From TrEMBL:
<comment type="similarity">
    <text>Belongs to the KdpA family.</text>
</comment>
<feature type="transmembrane region" description="Helical">
    <location>
        <begin position="280"/>
        <end position="300"/>
    </location>
</feature>
<keyword id="KW-0633">Potassium transport</keyword>
<feature type="transmembrane region" description="Helical">
    <location>
        <begin position="415"/>
        <end position="436"/>
    </location>
</feature>
<keyword id="KW-0406">Ion transport</keyword>
<feature type="transmembrane region" description="Helical">
    <location>
        <begin position="174"/>
        <end position="193"/>
    </location>
</feature>
<keyword id="KW-0630">Potassium</keyword>
<keyword id="KW-0812">Transmembrane</keyword>
<comment type="function">
    <text>Part of the high-affinity ATP-driven potassium transport (or Kdp) system, which catalyzes the hydrolysis of ATP coupled with the electrogenic transport of potassium into the cytoplasm. This subunit binds the extracellular potassium ions and delivers the ions to the membrane domain of KdpB through an intramembrane tunnel.</text>
</comment>
<keyword id="KW-1133">Transmembrane helix</keyword>
<feature type="transmembrane region" description="Helical">
    <location>
        <begin position="131"/>
        <end position="153"/>
    </location>
</feature>
<dbReference type="InterPro" id="IPR004623">
    <property type="entry name" value="KdpA"/>
</dbReference>
<keyword id="KW-0472">Membrane</keyword>
<feature type="transmembrane region" description="Helical">
    <location>
        <begin position="376"/>
        <end position="395"/>
    </location>
</feature>
<dbReference type="Pfam" id="PF03814">
    <property type="entry name" value="KdpA"/>
</dbReference>
<comment type="subunit">
    <text>The system is composed of three essential subunits: KdpA, KdpB and KdpC.</text>
</comment>
<feature type="transmembrane region" description="Helical">
    <location>
        <begin position="6"/>
        <end position="28"/>
    </location>
</feature>
Amino acid sequence: MGIVQIIVVILILVLLVKPVGTYLYHVFSNEPNRTDRVFGATEKGIYRLIGLKHRGGMSWKKYVLSFIVTNLVLVVFSYLFLRLQKGLPLNPGGIGNMEETLTFNTVISFITNTNLQHYSGETGVSYFSQMAVMTMLMFTSAASGFSVAVAFVRGITGRRSVGNFFEDFVKAHIRIFIPLALLVTMALVALHVPQTLKPTLEVTTLEGQTQQIAIGPVASLESIKHIGTNGGGFFGANSAHPFENPGPLSNVLEIISMWLLPASLPYMYGKFAGNKRQGWMIFGAMMTLFVVLLGVNYAAESAGNPAINAMGIDASQGSMEGKEVRFGIAQSALFTTVTTAATTGSVNNMHDTLTPLGSITPLTLMMLNNVFGGKGVGLINMLMYAILGVFLCGLMVGRTPEFLGRKIEAREMKLIAIAILIHPLIILVPTAGAFLTELGKGSISNPGFHGMTQVLYEYVSSAANNGSGFEGLADNTSFWNITTGVVMLLGRYVSMIAMLAVAGSLLRKKPVPETIGTFRTDNGLFTGILIGTVLIIGALTFLPVIVLGPVAEYLTLR
């Protein structure tokens, strides 16, 4: 029955990819279409308000500058709000100002679409902060990432320019995130997710004691949390909390919400490239890797914990430690795989309690960071590997590599090398540094192989802008707040800037006519080469540290 549940959700997603991908193309193609009738007047009003009189194309450098400056302004306001939240309105719980390094970490976390939470939502921030900082940054960070992805696609598919950042930013909000968030919010409220500004509920327990139960504007945050692949929870328990995720139906809704837009981007890319088949090939490569890693997690969790099984305890239900009974193994495994594939970071079970082999799935997906990925980042990274695969194949046969009719030369490969190398660098170096400086100070709760996985997971999650964590790590200290904050910044902006530079470089080149010797990128052979390129680079980079963590822990339990 569990496998049937998983198959049904995947089929729903696949059926929605084409219509949603087509809609995304119409939004960002900058060609007149029917969506202009619905949203055009609102957008023109915003353009007048912000002084955007001319919406002509930008150079890639101006696009990057606009992206970074916009994000910087949002960071400043968000930092001030969190540092002053005690004196701001909508604070019925009287929550104090956030500590300096935690504020730095939190603001960087949300602006980079990571939402790594070193605080507990219901006790760490006020209603005002939840809405004016957390929810606001969930919209703007998602729209920023989407805009950069579309600009990259325009560049490599030979459009006249990479576009205008402010136009893309507004369209992403008005035509995608706000309408979808409203729909999902109403659906979640119908499924009994709270949406209120009332203070905490005071109830009397069965023992006759008084208990305060936190509530608040939960549904509105939950909707954009998943649609924008943000992941930050209103409550500390995230989507394992019944007020965030009451049952199986809300669980499926949240899975589809965080998976649909990233999964539809390859089809949108195919429309931009004038070759929908190529978009499906990219989607096929992503889905193949996804299904394999989902199978690893589902099989490992269904088999149970080897140490507990050896004690003779019934393992027919699998490893239910840290999981909600209302979801079971299947919906927990699917949620875990989707949230790390789409770099959302939302959790409906505690990843720290995953079996050693089960934890390989979320780690691998974040290490690869290209299996669907977050708002646009996954598509950018997968296309980066596609260009790299074409380059390698060209070297093998002695031809100058071409991708979408443009030659791949030294400049593009240097930029791609930067984007590929920065990811393991900002994961492995801080992981080693954490063990050199923090071991024995109490933040690493498990000094063994599981502790290795805890620390590794924290930096992998930060670098991939995912935000989920192994919660056994006591991470709200100056060391963890600052180091993960720096990793999140580098993980977000270095690769985006490098890949926009690639798009700008390819855009300047004259197209090369297709010949009989042109390597096709819209067939099964190319899909196989793409998957192979991703796995070879990923395995060579991260396999040793996977062996030191999850694999070594598994072997000690046998």
